[in-house]
Design a protein that fits this description.
Strand content of chain B: 15-25%
Radius of gyration of chain B: 18 Å
CATH architecture of chain A: 2-Layer Sandwich
CATH architecture of chain B: 3-Layer(aba) Sandwich
Oligomer: heterodimer
Distance between the termini of chain A: 46 Å
Radius of gyration of chain A: 20 Å
CATH superfamily of chain A: MucB/RseB, C-terminal domain
Distance between the termini of chain B: 12 Å
CATH class of chain A: Alpha Beta
Number of domains of chain A: 1
Largest sheet of chain B: 11 strands, mixed
Order of helices and strands of chain A: HEEHHEEHEEEEH
Number of strands of chain B: 13
Number of strands of chain A: 8
Helix content of chain A: 25-40%
CATH topology of chain B: Rossmann fold
Number of domains of chain B: 1
């Protein structure tokens, strides 16, 4: 009788596991939003990821940290990238306490010449920079140089980050 | 009108910044600020022309000191700073990251001129908060005394003692307190989300351990307090401000959408006067780009007036008492 109960319990657990996987999606999310080298064509991750708690964010962005703290930033991570060994860029991922905070920062940084892009739930792109939000995450990608290929390269990298969020 | 010492053009009734000056003011001028410009400073590839940067530096320093020969000018600066035979620090600003940090080419051009004026390479120390900030400027870390040294407070550490001035409680970098007899301030001109303007005085936030504690109230009176400490007031004798590239909005970080190239160096000994002039430059550009002035945007750099008031007496913020020389 005990053995039958154990078997039944095991079956229930297995079924529950499959059901959970089906509901949340079988694709496993990466533990980090930062695509590794070559995960996005042409892009190489060129630095270690640095992460800042709100109390230490000033070390990275000085007084700019205040607006992120007010918007509810929980964690900030950043990493440098290189495209085809030449174009340098930095990816910042701000994880806020909720989507509202991400939206606040995105809208605050909006410029006249920025165009709307289809990345995340809302995205904006200028010649050398790209910002999008997805859930509680705000992602900002900035290139240090610019040529004709820059906007498309940034967009590809943004999709790479988005897939990991 | 020509400046008597250098023959440089002195402002007439109104400068290119839109700042009004009168004949009477010039005769009463107490603080001199030099703006040297070269519209061809950046090449077609967007990169700085090193030869032109060095020439611009020479022109700015000649106008500032009145000495035509750079070697004479730099000898005077070293002597006036009480730094003959001692260590001279060059305090850069790399916090904004690559793209909006003090340009290495400027720091190295100054180091070159100091050596020509007789300073040993190892007695020149280019420094900032840490290695990352210095590398953002394009500099290479070097602690060997055989060459120009370059390292941050992450190497030197900070004093144990907490110093107090006004609301400021700080621990200073040992580079400032122990290494340098004199510091030449090399800030980069930027808009700042809290203080409005970050330039000469705000760059001193990089010489203490916890600058974030000084950001309240739009950095007012934090900036004025910090610059009042005798170790800063006495050692930081000259500002050679990097306004070759700047951000007029969205600072202090790198914002390519708001980047512009004033192609200028701003030189002077009065840190308050320099920041007052810098405010005018940023506001002029903001208006040109259809943005509100810093005052209208609610980010007027109030700390400049605080630093210039009779309590702090760090310099002159009254445009009527600033002699602006543009070359």
């Amino acid at each position: 009788m005990k053995i039958q109960l154990k078997r039944a319990l095991l079956v229930v657990l297995i079924v529950a596991s499959f059901a959970t996987a089906a509901i949340t999606g079988c694709r496993k999310k990466s533990a980090t939003p930062f695509p590794p080298s070559a995960a996005v064509t042409g892009w190489e991750k060129s630095s270690e990821t640095r992460t800042f708690e709100p109390k230490d964010l000033w070390q990275y962005i000085d007084g700019d940290s205040e607006q992120y703290i007010q918007a509810g930033v929980v964690s900030t991570s950043t990493s440098d990238y290189k495209y085809k060994g030449q174009l340098e860029a930095v990816v910042d991922v701000y994880t806020m306490s909720g989507p509202d905070g991400a939206q606040t920062i995105l809208e605050r940084g909006q410029t006249k010449d920025a165009k709307t892009i289809n990345v995340g739930e809302q995205g904006l792109q200028s010649t050398q920079s790209l910002t999008f939000r997805k859930g509680p995450h705000l992602v900002r990608i900035v290139a240090y140089q610019s040529d004709a290929a820059t906007p498309q390269a940034l967009l590809a990298l943004a999709h790479g980050v988005e897939a990991n969020l | 009108m020509k400046d008597a010492a250098t023959g440089a053009l002195v402002l007439g009734a109104q400068s290119s910044l839109g700042l009004k000056h009168t004949q009477d003011v010039r005769t009463e001028a107490k603080s001199k600020v030099v703006i040297a410009r070269d519209p061809a400073l950046h090449g077609a590839d967007g990169k700085l022309n090193e030869v032109r940067v060095a020439a611009l530096l020479d022109r700015a320093i000649a106008t500032h000191t009145g000495h035509k020969r750079p070697i004479d000018a730099w000898r005077q600066i070293i002597s006036d700073g009480g730094a003959t035979g001692k260590v001279i620090g060059l305090k850069t600003n790399g916090l904004g990251g690559k793209g909006i940090s003090t340009h290495a080419v400027l720091a190295m051009a100054i180091a070159e001129r100091l050596q020509q004026a007789g300073v040993k390479p190892g007695n020149i120390l280019i420094w900032d908060r840490n290695a990352r900030d210095l590398q953002a400027c394009g500099l290479t870390i070097n602690t060997s005394p055989d060459q120009v040294r370059c390292f941050g407070s992450d190497v030197s550490g900070f004093e144990d003692a907490i110093e107090t001035w006004g609301i400021s409680h700080v621990r200073f970098s040992k580079i400032l307190t122990r290494e340098c007899a004199m510091v030449i301030n090399l800030p980069i001109l930027k808009d700042h989300s809290m203080s409005g303007v970050t330039f000469a005085m705000k760059n001193m936030y990089g010489v203490v351990e916890r600058p974030q504690d000084l950001h309240g109230g739009g950095c007012n009176p934090g900036i004025a307090d910090l610059n009042s400490f005798p170790v800063i007031r006495q050692k930081v004798r000259l500002t050679i401000g990097d306004a070759m590239t700047s951000v007029y909005e969205g600072g202090p970080g790198f914002r390519p959408e708001h980047l512009w190239q004033p192609n200028a160096l701003i030189v002077g000994e009065d840190r308050v006067a320099i920041d007052q002039i810098a405010w005018g430059i940023l506001d002029k550009k903001r208006v040109e780009m259809g943005l509100k002035t810093l005052e209208a945007a609610g980010r007027a750099p109030r700390y400049i007036a605080t630093a210039g008031d009779s309590n702090y007496d760090l310099g002159v913020n009254d445009l009527q008492r600033i002699k602006l020389v543009e070359v």
